[in-house]
């Protein structure tokens, strides 16, 4: 997966049971460019099972339309409302099942990791993330979405790109002795 020059399309999903965001980027010669983003609005559906079917069908349709090579999805965060977490988990699972149905490799990213990757701050607002994505991907203002679920999904795809292309900068140590010899200032005597 760490082939940095491989051309590919990454699909990002921001799961939700009322509004689900999707975003796609294209990677050519290790440069990301904007393909599309949008939302699936399910607010008018009352039946929770019909919402799940809508998510599955919609993700399959987008996969068939854009043929992504990789699929990145925002993972759940822990909240106080258990019912909301269960609903979100179902939505996430159905979107993942659609990617599995089409044999697309899946990666999950926590909301904090996504914000950190794009802004360098885990406390960044959704608007700040959207603004930076517009600049990084050179998205024309008329193509920017007002629904932040769409830019959140694009952020998941872009985070996946960044994680896959960053060189492995951590030094590997073969033993504690090797670590101590390489870092004498970090060891107290």
What are the key terms here?
189 residues, alpha/beta, Nucleotidyltransferase, domain 5, 5 strands, 20% strand, globular
Structural description of this entry:
- With 189 residues, the chain is of the alpha/beta class.
- The protein has a single domain, classed as Nucleotidyltransferase, domain 5 (2-Layer Sandwich).
- It contains six helices and five strands, in the order βββαβαβαααα.
- The protein has a five-stranded mixed beta sheet with strand order 3-2-1-4-5.
- α1 (48-66) runs parallel beside α2 and α3 (111-119) packs across α5.
- The longest helix is centred in the middle third of the chain and has 20 residues, at 82-101.
What is the fold's blueprint, element by element?
Elements: E1 8-14, E2 19-28, E3 31-41, H1 48-66, E4 70-74, H2 82-101, E5 106-109, H3 111-119, H4 126-136, H5 148-165, H6 176-182
Parallel strand pairs: 1-4, 4-5
Antiparallel strand pairs: 1-2, 2-3
Helix pairs in contact: 1-2, 3-5, 4-5
